[in-house]
């Protein structure tokens, strides 16, 4: 009975068709979120590589080492996932087929960025962390070029 009443109301007062570019039509996109997360991945990777092992038998040092290492790894993986999410939002919500004419390697660039984010989560690789930064920089340039704006690339670190 309730379903019939709702169907009748929908027939009498149909909702107008709407379109949105994404789940929430805010129109606010910026690759800086991906850059910040990618920078954190690179920073944590460097800190992990530079972390000194404590002397054997130094129980306090071992505990501190493992605590610090665990925190660095957790942050690195969390930030790699954030970078991946931000990159995928730009790829799937902001960039449109018309951008492929302007950037023929658009799909390859975003696919590479997503794969690098995954690689940075599962391994400790300065090479992959640096490649992630370089790929995010390329995305930065594509994004701002698509908006006909000259926004220089910068890093916080």
Automatic annotation (TrEMBL):
One Pfam family here? Sod_Ni
Q: What is its EC number?
A: 1.15.1.1
- Keyword Nucleotide-binding part of the UniProt annotation: no
Supply the InterPro entries for this chain.
NiSOD_sf (IPR036502), Superoxide_dismutase_Ni-type (IPR014123)
UniProt entry keywords in alphabetical sequence: Oxidoreductase
Leading EC class: oxidoreductase
One MF annotation (Gene Ontology) recorded for this entry: nickel cation binding
Q: So which domain of life are we looking at?
A: Bacteria
Q: What is this protein called?
A: Superoxide dismutase [Ni]
Supply the source organism for this entry.
Halomicronema hongdechloris C2206
Tell me the organism's taxonomic lineage.
Bacteria, Bacillati, Cyanobacteriota, Cyanophyceae, Nodosilineales
